[in-house]
């Protein structure tokens, strides 16, 4: 669905090194897929229950193996595709920025379980714009605080979805 | 400054959402004590879920706290129940634990909890099951069904709502008692089982009596699977009358993580009883044609432990036991 | 006629009308928020229905239901983060249109198509309810298998130009849906000794990750790229002109028909309908070259289809007592506790109630249009929030949305994982919509295949002996072979 606006596909003259790097990354993705296929295929030879063996609808691994087989056939097609045209890697600066945001998000997900949703969200909501170069810290802090509180109220008090609380016994 | 104005307008959106949702949500808010979460281990809309939600208001009143129903479905109800087994035993996290996750699933596979992981608060509902066929089915009694099954081994198709569930075990029990062979067709729950009956792919299934009564338009009961006839629906013939002593109720009750303080447990038990005795709850159960049932903490614990053993034996007999 | 009048007087009470407006509003809001959807909205209002009389209770539920199906498409357009599975196809045309600065127009298309599709299905429910219910019983597991395969061909439609990658993504989706307890035998598959995985991988957290999280990650990459400046984004609500409508009326009708038909089959649903309608539009539209770049045809087709499901999904729910999906299951549960016994008799003995439901649905669709028109200026304004701030805010609301489905932190990690994977896949032009299609259709196809084999005692040939199934198999084969035939013919000519 993103073939049109995928940022990596450019045909302008670029250094062969960048082309190689892109191709290598795509090959690595395919390699990961192959590894996952192998893992799932191996897992499909696990023990099945007595009930499964007695059932005439074939076992639990009958259908997954068909799908895994079909995916395996696609692997060479993907590799040929990479030979013909591979995407370019993004420039270093935005890539580093993205990795930071992803790491921050992971830390946020982990923090929700530790310090509760509200505190984690205030921190995260303030941190992301700073990581992305937005200035005006007072404003950002105010936005992060009010937004986190608004979302928390919406879920906790109105949707009655109890969100993880901090261990400090504050009620949030 | 334009940015800021834009952001503030964005917040206006959240505020409007909040205010209007608050309007609709206001009546459930019973402030006071910390909210109590009741985990329903199945999807919303099913029998367990509806019963729990029908109790919600009464319990909230008795506890003077918000009571929140949370659906954590998956893996035959074991995900939600195990979440409660791991929770802090402070009385704010409970599960409406049905027969399956408590007494059959632990025998079918390795689970991070067992029957001793909980403090038992109350049995909240219990309804017998029935053997149901299509309204226009040629069978009119259990005898007809068994006779056909004996003549045509393996030709009766029995729709199974979930593997290892009470209806499944009941079906195996029927086959065993009557000495017939059936073809088992797994489907995903009561609705799809009804569909399988109506479109002719299955011949019978075993729903609980409340589901049967709601759909009595299209279904016929061959046998009620409990010892005595129901006071509410005395026209349903039992299996025992027809020579097969089959008794398979579907029940459920409130449980808390083991280690509850006695005072807290007592309060929850009283709240549960209050909710079940309340008129709105009784009215709703009457609408659902679900017989009322209640057991206090002590009796419920003994009841679960007993069923845990009986169901283990049934599963062993059916060859479904994991260990 | 007398019954209709009774129904009108039942509905024309302040309480019912308030219930319709409040329900539709709540529905639109939960639809807009990523992760929260129809089921959550319905369970939220369920306790209130207990305390209400029958008609207002039903009105409240129907409002939430229709509103939530519509609401998801707004987020899909504005942020490319479909709030619900059924609006995943909407994002494919709506977001490019919004990027051109025409979010107001995209919302106009979607709102109008949703309302018209919804009204169409009300007519279907009113005119053909019981007949359609009987017809849906022609669909046994074998027909479902054939239909599932047919719907799978949508993958080709949504992976424009990257068929192998799209098919791979579809396979990934199917395999993800296989994790957990096997629905047929109860065996645990692919859980790798993780207890959490025995419950399987939820569709909603994956969608939140694949679309919302990955979209935000990818936006970080081209923060400095020159795009339509925030201040040039048109906010508001703009209805398409009649001249633009006229060539698309066929799309609208076809989308509504597809939605009404698919909705009447229990066990399918709005997501399947919108994907089928989208790829059908893409196959037949004279403007198919514009697909993926903000073509209104796609919006009209999938939005009329997914809202047409709302009315017709009530057919099996009411006339047979068989809810087709988790959403109608909640509604049926609420109806039963209101003392409504579903079944064919309902259409005979309680016609007043049925008429009341029709009328409520009509009003709901109109109210939905009004809420969309009034709300669009607010929703589209989100586009003017500076991106560095917006990214953080969307990540927060998506995280809490993923949490809210089951109240489970594990789902948050699934969403995060799907987000990282989605960002990588999308960067390298793997379409991710097929993952959703695979996850939605995989379980149906597997379950019906194995049920079919149980019923035929393992005889695969028996699958081709049933007329409806055979027809569907032939159509599927024709769709798959058509591009090949076209290419061969083109070669002959040169």
What do these coordinates show?
The complex is a heterotrimer of chains A (172), B (323) and C (494). Helix content of chain A is 69%, strand content 0%. With 172 residues, chain A is an all-alpha fold. In chain A, α1 (16-43) packs antiparallel against α3 (62-84). Chain A is flat and about 55 Å long. Chain A starts with 15 loop residues before the first helix and ends in a 13-residue tail after the last helix. Chain B is an alpha/beta fold and 323 residues long. Chain B has eleven helices and ten strands. In chain B, the strands form three sheets. In chain B, strands 2-1-3-10-4 form a five-stranded mixed β-sheet. Chain B has a three-stranded parallel β-sheet with strand order 7-6-8, with helices on both faces. Chain B has a two-stranded antiparallel sheet with strand order 5-9. In chain B, α2 links the parallel β1 and β2 (65-71). Chain B is globular. Mean pLDDT of chain B is 83; it is low at 18-31. By secondary structure, chain C is mainly α. In chain C, strands 1-2 form a two-stranded antiparallel sheet. Chain C starts with a helix and ends with a helix. The model of chain C has no long low-confidence stretch (mean pLDDT 87). The interface between A and B is medium-sized, with 21 and 25 residues. Chain B: Belongs to the UPF0065 (bug) family. Chain B: It comes from Albidovulum denitrificans. Chain B: This is Tripartite-type tricarboxylate transporter receptor subunit TctC. Chain B: Pfam families: TctC. Chain B: Residues 1-21 form the signal peptide. Chain C: Pfam families: TctA (PF01970).
